[in-house]
Amino acid sequence: MGDADDDFDASGPLGTGSPELNELLGMFDLPAFARRGQDMEYSVRQVHDRCRNRRGEYLEMVRMRLRQWAAVAQGPGDWEAAFTAPIDELWRLADAQPPRWADRPASLRLRRAAARDLAASVRRFNDRWRQLVASLNLGPANRIIDHYNRYYLLEKECVLGSARLAARYFTPIPPFSHEMLLETYPPLPQPELRAERS
Question: Does the global pTM surpass 0.85?
């Protein structure tokens, strides 16, 4: 066996025991504060992505009921036949496509039926959405945020050698709460149905 075989160390990174190579490889690894920042951003993004995706799924029935309402109403002013107030904002808040109104309104009975279905769908969405947000386990994300707020500056200061430089552009991240998520992704305003005259 030659000298080359004696230098081989299978336990080292990439199978090498060379200190010079190990030091060079270490130079390209992210510092602890940067990894902590990435972990925090990923965790925060994951919570928001989950909320947006589930909210979009839950809104599908509301969007369908909005399309049904538009199919029996002639325009945004037709709300007076079935609702106590305009419902224009529902399209935007539900991320629905702009309405395609009917050429002429359907009968009052059909408009009221579509309005009841829409109101019931919004109520179901709001109930399901509040339950989902209340059931979210925010503990893991909040632990990552807490560690970021506690250790990021210290780890960055160790790398930069200056507390002042480390603190530049640093903003503590508020922890998640169910209330904060409901403010960010609120329930829909509940349409009130106009009382039907006998």
Answer: no
